[in-house]
Design goal:
- Pfam families: PNP_UDP_1.
- It comes from Helcococcus ovis.
- GO terms for molecular function: adenosylhomocysteine nucleosidase activity; methylthioadenosine nucleosidase activity.
- There is one protein chain.
- With about 240 residues, the protein is α/β, with parallel strands linked by helices.
- The protein has one domain: Nucleoside phosphorylase domain (Rossmann fold), CATH 3.40.50.
- It has eight helices and ten strands.
- It has helices spanning about 5, 25-30, 65-80, 115-120, 135-145, 165-175, 185-195, 215-240, and strands spanning about 15-20, 35-40, 45-50, 55-60, 85-95, 105-110, 130, 150-160, 180-185, 200-210.
- A hairpin with a 2-residue loop joins strand 2 and strand 3.
- Helix 2 runs parallel beside helix 8 (about 215-240) and helix 3 packs parallel to helix 7 (about 185-195).
Length: about 240
């Protein structure tokens, strides 16, 4: 079975954490924290098996967008059977009081570009998936215990196959999804796929840009490496 030879390398039975990032910088930030890395290529996708804080982890890059995220999440689950999955990386903030490098943690993830309202009414707007309560509580516990140098927001993260970079679009999305605290392009697809396979999940992202602020597009390009590292730092604390 693909992936089995890597997992048998470890004799101890730790919970296996699956980690998915969308972009190379997000994945590299996690790899920098891993020990005893073993690499395997499945269907053209690179997976990295190793340890962070003595916890077994399996890491991969999904690529951008909901379709890529769903495919890679399914491949990870079917091949390596992780006990839970964490999606890390960057996101755009949707609250005026937020700042770049703040951390956002999912309560729910919502596919904001899913819309069958023409036939289903309001119930056809968005698909919502709830993240795991135990994992959310563990993140809160880690944040309080380790006093991470960042503001942290718990709430709904919305995903769609479009990069949201204009304030008018954010205001439209906030009107549809008033509980949204951040927007990106993969989390809701990862969460929905995990839910279908009965795998607990949590989203841990760092804000690279706030569209309400000036120079938001410049902030994203400038901060993506910094925010990837910040998200990885939060994951490392969580895995303790």
């Amino acid at each position: 079975m693909p992936g089995l030879k890597i997992r048998l390398f470890y004799k101890e039975k730790f919970m296996l954490c699956g980690i998915i990032g969308a972009m190379p910088k997000e994945v590299e930030a996690i790899k920098d924290k891993m020990l005893n890395i073993k690499e395997e290529n499945i269907q053209g996708v690179d997976f990295y098996f190793g340890k962070i804080n003595n916890q077994d982890v399996i890491l991969t890059k999904s690529g951008v967008g909901k379709v890529n995220a769903s495919i890679i999440t399914t491949l990870m689950i079917m091949t390596y059977h992780p006990d839970y999955i964490v999606n890390i990386g960057t996101a755009g903030g949707m609250l005026k009081e937020q700042n770049t490098l703040d951390i956002v943690i999912s309560e729910n993830v919502i596919q904001h570009d899913f819309d069958t309202s023409y036939i289903d009414g309001k119930s056809g707007i968005g698909i919502t998936t709830k993240s795991d309560e135990l994992l959310r509580n563990k993140v809160k516990e880690s944040f309080l215990k380790n006093k991470v140098d960042s503001n942290i927001y718990f709430g709904d993260i919305i995903s769609g196959d479009v990069f949201v970079g204009e304030e008018v679009k954010v205001l439209e999305l906030k009107e549809k999804f008033p509980t949204a605290i951040a927007c990106e392009m993969e989390a809701a697809a990862i969460g929905y796929t995990c839910d279908k396979f009965n795998i607990p999940f949590i989203i841990i992202r760092s804000l690279s840009d706030i569209v309400h602020h000036d120079n938001s597009n410049i902030d994203f390009m400038k901060n993506v490496e910094i925010t990837s590292k910040r998200s990885a730092d939060m994951l490392e604390e969580f895995l303790k």
